[in-house]
Design a protein that fits this description.
Structural class: alpha+beta
Strand content: 15-25%
Helix content: 40-55%
Strand order of the largest sheet: 2-4-5-7-6
Radius of gyration: 16 Å
Number of strands: 7
Number of helices: 6
Amino acid sequence: IQARTASLGRLLDQLLSQALVIHRGDSARRERVDLRDIALDVFEEGDHAVLNPEFDVILDIGEDPVEVLADAQSLKEALKNLLNNALKYGRSPVRIGASLEGERASIWVEDAGGGPVDGVLAELGSRFNKGARSRQSSSGLGLAIAHSVAHSFDGELRLEKTTSNSFRAALVFAALPEGRA
């Protein structure tokens, strides 16, 4: 009963989180946000060090601004979900970062695991889809929340295996050119 109650509590937290993110995406004022600040905030909160002390988590944000028009709180919630997924299903080390590639800005989490098989990868991100490697305690909402945030700010959630045989989950948006508000 105790385990089930805890599981239902986590599910309720994530349902409320998703509702908040969807609401904020519809109503929050879009502001200039530097994705490096979001990554730094999530990293400095240190939840990962308490919940998964055996994982090395590395911040990789660079020195140049990575700016988008979005809502900082929603982006932070999405990044926390991506980090939690990496800590549950990935392998150490885990990197949290923000980067600019041409006209695209991304905030991402990358772990040393190879990620799910391609068939499962295509289905991830839909609500309550837990994937084959999921534990019973998972609600399957973490990636759905990240997807909702990306969609709310005209971006996309990318889940991909990297050339270094790592797995990266990224929120990708149109980057703001310097000087644009």
